Amino acid sequence: MKKLLKVIIGVLIILIVSLCVLMYMTGPTDSKDNTNIVLNVGKNDTYSTLGSVLYEKGLVRSELIYKVYVKLFLRESHLEIGEYNLNKTMGLDEIFEILRKGNNYNPDVIRITFKEGLNARSIARLIANNTNNSYEDIIRLLEDKTFARKMIDEYWFLDSSILDAKIYYPLEGYLFPDTYEFLNRDVKTETIIRTLLSEFGEKIKPYKEEIDKSKFTLNEIVILASIAELESLPGSDRRGVVGVFVNRIENNISLGSDMTAYYAYKLDDIRKGLTLQEFQSCTSPYNTRCNSKMGLPVGAISNPGFDSIIGAIEYENKGYLYFVADCNGKTYFAKSYSEFESTIRNLRNQGLWCEVSAWRNKKESYFSKCSYYDGWWNWFSYSLY
User: Fold this and answer.
1) 45/146 same-domain check
2) Three-state secondary structure readout of the chain
3) pTM metric for this prediction
4) Among 200, 291, 307, 333, which residue has the fewest nearby CB atoms (within 10 Å)?
5) Are 140 and 258 found together in one domain?
């Protein structure tokens, strides 16, 4: 009985001492110093990643204890983006409560939505319209090969293939489309670009093993995805669409993508159109409408969304050379031109063949038609800003 009592007392002492240590390690680092310390919380921050920042600012005693505490006791994962005023008289519980409630909400926070399929110029216009950066300065940065080299050193998914002298914008294809929040209009363009690149890395990281096993490099996958993004209807079979492009490459047939021709001429308003001579011109390494241009264009022609990227990673090549989408976005594939024509006739008979252009959403996308045959696209997407 006495031994059991000693064990119980020993356990209690250990628990009390442990609790005291925990309270000390997670309590205020200086109960007398209420000097204001600013903490900026961004879109990609988590409670775990904030540990090193809080430690550097002297708001926690141990980064290790902080991380253990987060894992053991923190049940709320939500973080409000913004600028927070903290001080050393606050313990971890108080700091967490402030971060959860977001009571230091910054009304100057800006939100920018980058839609799937925008090219670098459209992205530059969006940034210029929502921040204090000029369009000209943004474009210069996106064209800057020196800046691109710096990004290659920092991001694992970028390599020297994006530095080809004929590529308009080295980071085209890697600026991941999504809605982002930034502290205010004074945010630097470089900060925005880094945020988009970081998001790209996070999205494709789970697929790194698949990418490594692919017959295509990551940059080639991004190029394929960028074409599929513009040459596909929303909700269409991206794996199958990319499979058609891959099959055409393997059969030494030009991709014949109109969208690569528009990009080659830097023509954002494609309603202005190109002449047949311009379409068939072989002067640009981007233009796959050139009959002698086999394989992929020199670089990406848009910044594709997640579905297109996954479609390019996990493409399905079933021997198709043509595809067409009906008015509902359903995609039909064909191995021969006669089969392709038959599909179109059936769609027309069923009233599913789209011939009328329509606004999908004001200032967002302009849609028309829906077929790809023999290298010609009758469907296109155009973003207005």
Assistant:
1) no
2) CHHHHHHHHHHHHHHHHHHHHHHHHHCCCCCCCCCCEEEEECCCCCCCCHHHHHHHCCCCCCHHHHHHHHHHHCCCCCCCCEEEEECCCCCHHHHHHHHHHCCCCCCCCEEEECCCCCCHHHHHHHHHHHCCCCHHHHHHHHHCHHHHHHHHHHCCCCCHHHHCCCCCCCCCCCCCCCEEEECCCCCCHHHHHHHHHHHHHHHHHHHHHHHHHCCCCHHHHHHHHHHHHHCCCCCCCHHHHHHHHHHHHHCCCCCCCHHHHHHHCCCCCHHHCCCHHHHCCCCCCCCCCCCCCCCCCCCCCCCCCHHHHHHHHCCCCCCCCEEEECCCCCEEEECCHHHHHHHHHHHHHCCCCCCCCEEEECCCEEEECCEEECCEECCEEEECC
3) 0.68
4) 291
5) yes
